[in-house]
Amino acid sequence: MSTPPPPDPRALASGPEGPGALRPLLDTVLGALDTGRRARGGPLPAGGPEAVAARLRDALGDVLPEHGDPEALRVLVHALAEGAADPADPLCAAHLHCPPLAVAAAADLAATVLNPSLDSWDQAPAASELEALVTRELAHLAGLADAVVTTGGTESNHLALLLARESHGGGVRLVHGANAHHSLPRAAWLLGLPEPVVVPAPAGTIDLAALHRALTDVAGPRGSLLVAATAGTTDAGLIDPLPEIAGLCAAHGARLHIDAAHGGGLLFSDRHRDRLTGLEAAHTVTLDLHKLGWQPIAAGLLAVRRPRDLDVLHQRADYLNADDDTDAGLPDLLGRSLRTTRRPDILKTAVTLKTLGRRGLGALVDHVCARAREFADLIHAHPGFELYDRPVISTVLFRPEGATDDAVAAVRRGLLTDGRAVLGRARLDDRLWLKATLLNPDTRPDDLAALLKLVEGTTHG
Fold first, then answer.
1. How much is the pLDDT for 223?
2. What is the edge-to-edge ordering of all strands in the sheet holding 424-428?
């Protein structure tokens, strides 16, 4: 049998010839992903930054050679997979960095091939309607009215502060807990807002008495303060007392934003969604389904209570949303984002919601939360380790008993350098903790035991 000719590198991904051009290329990609994973041999490439960089440079060679290399796809995908931190490996548990579902990744390929841009209807006729339907449904799940797509929590938080500033006529001051994500004070800086008021969070969540004092003491007309609460802190997965914070905001006439980038996925779970009671009282809510939603990056949203708050995003560009086109019935998409060119990231989310349903996604949430509790039990029962507290979502903080902060940091870096495990770090109670964020629904109890054994071996080594 004759060998088929190699794919034409100039072939288009879409159109009538697209499927035929893509099939052999997808086989190459899938094969290279597998060989790269096996070459890596663990959750992270061994050797540390310099060794990983050297291997990547060797594989890449000339970035722009005079003549093309038909092996480039295979070589570079293999190199990227070999040098990847793999969130699908149970020993890769440092960050809010989930392994994406296969069905979501497949849907994302379709979005890439069709390549719509959601800045005008004539570039994305079906995608724009799909986005409107899905974002509205997810907003309703959170108890709000509408939502717009973002690249993640950072953009959502930035947009929330922008909407707050504009809704109050240009002047607003951010009040956030010491536990808040760094993107919130950064957004205040970018938007030229006054220095934020930072409320203590000594136990990892906002101190309500301190928040009350701040709202009482900070000068400004009613509505000029924006309180940002957190539903799932980055360090420990803790949830601020949302109903009580909402009550204080109502009493003081403050606007409320809730950053639920981490914890928003609990909405899918009948068992855990009550932890987010109070979310519906917010003016804006950050959601991020490339965390507890198993979506490929990016999959962020900002949900709003009052859709008219989004009116401030409106812009007019004759080539995209001319007045006569809008009057004739063509949808105006420029008011749905701070960005102009936007890919249809909502497709993978729509496919996931439709394929798994709320109960299917809820089961995944319940599973990772249960695994986190099991891991906490293992740590609590082990005399060589100290557990910070029981997990609220799926983040577990622990440290070797009696270890110094320097020793804790060295354990983590040693595991990273050897490529044996990926753990995060968090500072609470003025001590450094190892952080395991369990987002892999395929993690088994023996994987948890193996992870603890690796840490124990590195500690004693």
1. 77
2. 385-387, 395-400, 431-437, 424-428
- Residue 413: in which H helix or E strand, if any? helix 405-418
Instruction: With CA atoms as reference, report the closest residue to 264 among 216, 311, 220, 231.
Output: 231
d(CA 253, CA 300): 28
Q: Is 323 in contact with 101 (CB distance < 8 Å)?
A: no
Rounded CA-CA distance 292/269 in Å is 11
Q: Among all chains, which residue has been given the structure tokens 């960005």?
A: 339
- Residue 288: DSSP 8-state: E
How do residues 100-112 score in pLDDT, each as one tens digit?
999 999 999 999 9
Contact (CB, 8 A) for 419 and 46? yes
Q: Which CATH class is domain 358-460?
A: alpha beta
Q: What is the pTM of this model?
A: 0.96
Residue 92 contacts by C-beta under 8 Å, 6 or more apart in sequence? 43, 44, 85, 86, 421, 422, 440
> Running DSSP on this structure, what letter comes out for residue 231?
B
Instruction: Report yes or no: 159 and 337 within 8 Å, Cβ to Cβ.
Output: no
Query: How far apart are the C-alpha atoms of 85 and 67, rounded to whole Å?
Result: 32
Q: What is the pLDDT of residues 269-287, one digit of tens each?
A: 999 999 999 999 999 999 9
CA-to-CA dists, residue 401 to 233, 353, 431, angstroms: 24, 43, 12
Q: Does domain 103-355 have CATH number 3.30.360.10?
A: no
Cα–Cα distance, 1 to 346 (Å, whole number): 43
CA dist list (Å): 282 to 246, 262, 294, 385 = 7, 16, 25, 39
pLDDT at 2: 58
Read off the pLDDT of residues 133-147 as tens digits, 9 standing for 90 and up: 999 999 999 999 999
DSSP 379-409: HHH-TTEEE----SSSEEEEEETT--HHHHH
Q: Residue 134's closest CA among 359, 365, 349?
A: 349
Q: How confident is the model at residue 19 (pLDDT cuts 50, 70, 90)?
A: very high
What are the residue ranges spanned by the domains of the chain? 18-84, 103-355, 358-460
Alpha-carbon distance of 411 to 415, in angstroms, equals 6
Each residue's pLDDT tens digit, 403-420: 999 999 999 999 999 999
Length of the chain as a residue count: 461
